[in-house]
């Protein structure tokens, strides 16, 4: 425990530096979504190319989270955080000057190297910079930034792309990155440069990298090729490799003299519960936002800016509830707080599903958005506080990395399984709805059905609103049929995600015991 007299007198400015870094790192996982159409046109990219603009970032981001956490423990969190900031800023600049889609893929990976460092080290820096009640408030503020950044990407991205060009989503990081570097140098405590003694577990690093890469890449392969079976070697091979490498990693951590990860952290049921909640949150909510944005833009008809503005109904709660939830972590059992927050999100998703009709707009959705926003705004503070208060100070760096890793892997899981549910529901909906389009020749319906299935649910609306289709007398009926088909798959997604969040809430209720009378286990 940090003594009051040793606390960094400039700790709140240090919090601003860390929060800015985390905001940039996380918003770049979602802000690029609304820029993809412009990138496709400008760089002559295919659909698969566009998927790799996102996947190149998320794969590298996920793989390096644990590595950065360990490097921070060994060589100093302040130094590693600043190195990450510099790499991220340089990567952002390189993204903006990319003249081919291949260059953009490479530089997105460079950007992710730095973003991973900032995310991995953030909670540990704040956890050791603050003490007592202030720690809960500070972690609450930082957690609110996570919820805000994940949900506000479409808003910021939509404004930048509509006002300037797709490159602006990267160039905006340059001045912010430079300011954040200066703030970090000046205000993050020198205590963050202290490091562990002992050697580097290079074998453990290699095994952990291989495990996470194989797992995430295998899931990405399935996401990009929805028609592939799980047994296909290009998918199953990576997933089997992930299991084998994970077993070897655990064996290495038990036998190494200086292990990369202290497995004793998982003896705490509260820590284990917190990282599981992080997984369910990433899989059930943060992976959902990409599909929500697609639904609102492609099918409800909002622009990128209008979509982001309406989704602020969700993200806006993070700014208000994050600090409040942080203060409550000092008074309430964290498991109860997590369970209530997760239930709000789960109920909100089921409510949104019930409100989704073929004519629904934001005027119908907003009650569900508020429920999701309340849960999203209040869930991160008790989750991170539970994890940090369950381990020793020397373990906070790795605990921070584990929370980030489980959440990011959860996002990867969620995106894949949501995509599969959407595709299945969409194709079933097309089979049911298209024959009901009156007056359309059967041959044309068959051709349109094949084109819609091949293009996928994201592009269905664009096909049926093309000039050729809109010139037919049954265009409106066809457009409504495709909207209903998408709604069918979209509802399946929400049911899946709602159940994941409810399961996460039950897990928290059973396992997370911190927050009551100083309990740590």
TrEMBL record:
GO cellular component: plasma membrane
Residue ranges of every copy of the Major facilitator superfamily (MFS) profile domain listed in the record: 14-516
A Pfam short name: MFS_1
Presence of keyword Transport: yes
Entry's transmembrane regions: 12-32, 52-69, 81-106, 112-130, 137-160, 166-188, 200-220, 235-251, 271-292, 312-329, 336-355, 361-379, 399-420, 493-512
Membrane topology of the entry: Multi-pass membrane protein
Subcellular location: Cell membrane
Entry GO MF terms: transmembrane transporter activity
InterPro entries, per the entry: EmrB-like, MFS, MFS_dom, MFS_trans_sf
UniProtKB keywords: Cell membrane, Membrane, Transmembrane, Transmembrane helix, Transport
Tagged with keyword Ribosomal protein: no
PANTHER family referenced in this protein's UniProt entry, alphabetically: MAJOR FACILITATOR SUPERFAMILY MULTIDRUG TRANSPORTER MFSC
Similarity-based family: Belongs to the major facilitator superfamily. EmrB family.
Protein name, as recorded: Major facilitator superfamily (MFS) profile domain-containing protein
